[in-house]
Every structure is written in structure tokens, then in C-alpha cells.
Amino acid sequence: MRLDRALKDFGRANRGDINDIRGAAEFLDGETTTGAMKLAFAAQSLRRLLTSFEDDVVPEIQDIALQCDAAQPIMDIFVDFLRDEGVNRRVLQWVENFSTSFDS
Asked: Which residues 6+ apart lie within 8 Å of 50 measured at CB?
């Protein structure tokens, strides 16, 4: 329940970046200048979203993990969140390959 609420609040607060990332699907091939620019903007949105996730949601995840004596990889939770937000499979693969690590 706590994680669901935290993710819902996070999604609401970061709707613009989520929409930018969701929209990256049609430009993943980056074959045009516009497509390449859209991907660059989506990458910036993803960086902002990852930073916000680490600042706003990861502490909650870590607290829950300590209380329950169980942990799930934080990147998996982030990718599941994006999937629930309607981000398509190709973009999720791009996100999974994006270089990041959460302190967990």
C-alpha cells in the first residue's frame, strides 16, 4: 500500500517526463533529425525521472524492505512502474539499458 501510494504520487508529480519517455517509442530508430532530437529530449526526461525516483521513491522502498526483511531490485520496480504507466516494451528495453544505478 505505501509503495503504491508513493508511486502514484511520483507519477502524478512527474507526468510530463513520463509522457516524454512514453513518446520515445516512435523515434527509437532516430533516423531523422527530429527523431534524434526527440530521443535526446526523452533521455533528458529519463535522467530527471531517475533522479526524482531516487530522491522521492527509493527511500520509501528501502524503508519498506527493512520492515519486511525483503528486497526487490530497485531498477525492476522503476521499470514495472513505467510499464504500469503505459511505456511500451521497446522503450522499456531502452530504459533497462540506460546506464544508472540506484543506491540500494
From this structure: 78, 98, 100
